[in-house]
Design a protein that fits this description.
559 residues, alpha+beta, GTPase activation, GTPase activator activity
Length: 559
């Protein structure tokens, strides 16, 4: 069998050791579904020649603007920018944010070529303001390109994708930052044990999640990253979330029970990813990634848009050089020990709850809206104090000193749309929990059991369309809510009975029972299993109320 032919930028010994080449294979162009399976299986992953051909074909099929930079453009830019300078000493574009060029199996000439290509891309794409993933992408593509120009053209085509329904590489700080928040939301829902560990050992948990793109783009060894990139080119951005979640799951499995320090957990994860071959194979990593039953692409896009909107409202659209991760208020900073006062929960317990809320609201600080000890035991007063605030946090303490509550995604004023009748509203971001005698959180049943819902046949057949940032002509310019029940083909309404309020009672969760029921005098309540949250009773099934509080989420800049 002939040895694989590498370009002049690849270190042959390193490449032979990193990825075994079993010779050429053929790949006729197939339907997307078959291509997905071949990418996941690594069909072309053991043939260097075929790998290069597949990349060429997949990237060529990315829809782009009509005119793309070519060999003559690259030659002109190199002559003007690089000149006679040594490529190994060329500065990297500012948009890579001090990200180092991963060498993988490149030789010194190859590493210099990556720097030249990045500078040429910066010249051709002046609108790119933040793209720390790009050095890894260019370095990978250079392994499988015949020369610098081909690598440059491939990278440009990925960056110039103009399909509004297809997201590839983040090119702005706003997109990158909102992706970090979205990843944090996904960890909170799909890796709860790992999230609990991160919250326990990290002063700033979002600082840990801010590295999530760095794990695949730069830290993974070449043979792992190339396999991930294969599937990414075929299936899109959602694959990156899957792989990063799988990495975190494996990290938690390996490191659970071992001491972790808050100042080293970020580096510990990076070290784990670099040495991942000691723990799991590329096949097992992808297997774990695709075993995670994530939200649909549409729902993740809605979540990303909601996070972007929250950042824009706070004026966080570019990186602040003097402040790490801009103006974020992290869990330990949002709940100030000296300012926080509650008759029901401690500062530590409130921080635990705050670690569960969506990332866009973890930017905020808790604001006491209602306290039965201050405002009286009146449901009408509860509504009056809470209306105009979205979301809210409900806390209940029983006379037996049990503590439970609910995160409620929607303004209580929505209850008025039912004409005085009791009607359910809210979204799948709602959850219920108990703190005493033990901590337990119950999320929307569909999150852990997505088999309960299937896309309607017409929706499944439709092509992916870009999502509007506003709902038709709604003057409030509101997003279509993330995890709105109407987005899901549910077997019955009992799986979407999130919250309801009338003059004589307040209900959270429904179907077969109620997660929480509180009477109009805020005196008595009951709790049981319900279909919406598939929960156990949150405290004694019938209880007397000692105290009720409602908390809102306040932007610290408005204080």
């Amino acid at each position: 069998m002939d040895s694989p032919v590498y370009n002049c930028f690849v270190d042959r010994d390193k490449m032979d050791a990193a990825i075994q080449d079993l010779g050429p294979k053929e790949l006729s162009y197939t339907e997307l579904q078959e291509l997905k399976q071949l990418a996941r299986q690594g069909y072309w992953a053991q043939s260097h020649a075929l790998w290069g051909k597949v990349y060429q074909r997949l990237i060529r099929d990315i829809p782009c603007r009509t005119v793309m930079p070519d060999a003559s453009v690259y030659s002109d830019i190199v002559g003007k920018i690089v000149g006679k300078h040594s490529s190994s000493y060329l500065p990297l574009p500012e948009f890579v944010d001090n990200t180092q060029v991963p060498s993988y199996c490149l030789n010194a000439c190859g590493e210099g070529a990556v720097r030249k290509i990045l500078l040429c891309i910066a010249n051709q794409f002046p609108d790119i303001s933040f793209c720390p993933a790009l050095p890894a992408v260019v370095a990978l593509l250079l392994h499988y390109s015949t020369d610098e120009v081909e690598c440059f053209e491939k990278a440009c085509r990925i960056l110039a994708c103009n399909d509004p329904g297809r997201r590839l590489i983040d090119q702005s700080f706003l997109a990158f930052e909102s992706s970090c928040m979205t990843f944090g939301d996904l960890v909170n829902k799909y890796c709860q044990a790992a999230h609990k560990l991160m919250v326990a050992v990290s002063e700033d948990v979002l600082q840990v999640y801010a590295d999530w793109q760095r794990w695949p783009f730069g830290e993974l060894p070449l043979c792992y990253f190339a396999r991930v990139f294969d599937v990414f080119l075929v299936e899109g951005y959602k694959v990156l979330y899957r792989v990063a979640l799988a990495i975190l799951k494996f990290f938690h499995k390996v490191r659970a029970g071992q001491p972790l320090e808050s100042d080293s957990v970020k580096q510990d994860i990076c070290t784990f990813v670099k040495d991942i071959a000691k723990t799991v194979s590329p096949e097992k990593l992808l297997e774990k990634a695709f075993a995670i039953r994530l939200f649909s692409r549409k729902e993740i896009q809605l979540l990303q848009m909601a996070n972007e909107k929250a950042l824009k409202q706070k004026g966080i659209t570019v990186k602040q050089k003097s402040v790490s991760l801009s103006k974020r208020q992290f869990v330990h900073l949002a709940v100030h020990a000296e300012n926080f006062r509650s008759e029901i929960v401690s500062v530590r317990e409130m921080r635990d709850i705050w670690s569960w809320v969506p990332e866009r609201f973890a930017l905020c600080q808790p604001l006491l809206l209602f306290s039965s000890l201050q405002h009286g035991y009146s449901l009408a007063r509860f509504y009056f104090q809470c209306e105009g605030h979205e979301p809210t946090l409900l806390l209940i303490k029983t006379t037996q000193k049990e503590v439970c509550g609910a995160y409620l995604s929607t303004d209580w004023s929505e209850r008025n749309k039912f004409g005085g009748k009791l009607g359910f509203f809210g979204t799948g971001e709602c959850f219920v929990f108990r703190l005493q005698p033990e901590v337990q959180r119950y999320e929307w049943v569909v999150i852990k059991h997505p088999e309960l819902t299937k896309p309607p046949p017409l929706m499944a057949a439709e092509p992916t369309a870009p999502l509007s940032h506003s709902a038709s002509s709604d003057p409030a310019d509101r997003l279509s809510p993330f995890l709105a029940a109407r987005h899901f083909n549910l077997p019955s309404k009992t799986e979407s009975m999130f919250m309801a309020g009338g003059s004589d009672c307040l209900i959270v969760g429904g179907g077969g029972g109620q997660a929480l029921y509180i009477d109009g005098d805020l005196n008595r309540g009951r709790t049981s299993h319900c279909d919406t949250f598939n929960n156990q009773p949150l405290c004694s099934e019938n209880f007397l109320i000692a105290a009720v509080e409602a908390w809102g989420f306040q932007d610290p800049d408005t204080q």
